[in-house]
Prior knowledge:
Layout: H1 3-9, E1 39-41, E2 46-47, E3 50-51, E4 68-74, H2 81-93, E5 96-100, E6 107-111, E7 116-119, E8 126-131, H3 139-150, E9 165-167, E10 214-216, H4 232-241, E11 263-269, E12 286-289, E13 294-298, E14 314-317, E15 323-330
Parallel strand pairs: 1-7, 4-5, 4-6, 6-8, 12-14
Antiparallel strand pairs: 2-3, 7-8, 9-10, 11-13, 11-15
Amino acid sequence: MDIISHLEHIRAGIKGAPFLQSGTPIRRGKAATDIEELDIRRVINRNAMKCFDSSTDCFWSKSSDGTVYVPYTISSAFSMSTILDAMKTFASETCVQFIPQTNEVDYVSIESDVGCYAYIGKIGGAQTVSLDVNGCVYNGVIQHELNHALGFVHEHTRSDRDLYVEIIWEYISEDEVQNFEKQDTNNLGTPYDYSSVMHYSNYAFTNVSGMATIVPIPDPTVPIGQRQGLSPIDIERINLLYTCNSKAFLTPSGSQMNANSNARTNYIVFTNLFFLLPHADNAGPTEFQLNGTLGTFTSPNYPSPYPMNANYLYLIHIPSGQVSVTRCLFG
C-alpha cells in the first residue's frame, strides 16, 4: 500500500478541522490513528502566497546572507532522521534553510498531534506543524506540511484550478467542502502542477468509497496526489516567492525559442547552485544532474527544432558549487 492509500485508509481524525474566528480548531474523531494528512490551519486575513493584512508579515524573513532561516523544534516523540532528511531538500534546492531554534521568537514546532497539519505562512511565535507518528512521518508528507508553513496552499485550490481539475462536489461531505474551496492565490506565473506535493489525490475526503472527488481535465488519467517529495515546480515557486539568489532565469532569444532553435551549453561548476529556464506549456521540466567540474549538456531534442514560441523549464542540479554558463548556442 502506498503512502497516499495508507493515509486515506486511516483517514478521519481532524480531517478538515473547521475553525472559529479565534483560530481554535474544532476536532472530530476519536482515535489518534484516524489521520487525514491533507489539512491546513487557517489564519484570518491571510492566504497562500498573499498577505492581506499589511500589519503582519506572513512570510519568513531573508537574512543578509540571502538565506531564509526557519527555526524549528522537534518533539522527542520522533526519531528525527526522516524529518531532517526532508528538510535537506529545501536547503539544497532553495534559499530556505530550517535550523534548530535557539532564541528566535518565531519558529515552527514540529509535534505529533492528531493528524498532519500546518498553518499557512509565518503566523508569529511558536506555530505547530503536526506530523502524527502514526501516519505522517514520510518524506513527501513532511515536505507538504513544511511548504504550508512557508506560505503555500493546496494546488487544487489555486485560483485557476477550474481549468485543470473538476471538483466532484456530490462525493464531498458538507463539513469537508472547505478543503476544496478555491482560494485567491498568487500563482507566481507558474503552470498548474498535477505532480505538486501540495496536490490532493483523486479520492481525498470522498464520502463514497471508490468515487473520486478530484478529476484532472481534460485527461482524467493524469496522476495527482504524489507524496514522494517536492516537485521541480514546487521548488521553482519557493525560489520565486522568496526571491532566492540560488536561481537564475536564462531566456534564449529574449523569452522564446524560435522554430529553428536548439541549445548546447558548456558549463563550469564553482559552488552549489541550480538555474531554471521558463517552463514549457503543458510539459514537465527537464532535469539535469551535472557531476563534473567541466562539461556540456544539451536540450532534450537537440539538434531537432522546437515548436514556435515555446518556453521550456530546465532544472539543473549541481553537487557542489555554482554554475557558470560559458557559451550558449541557439540555432
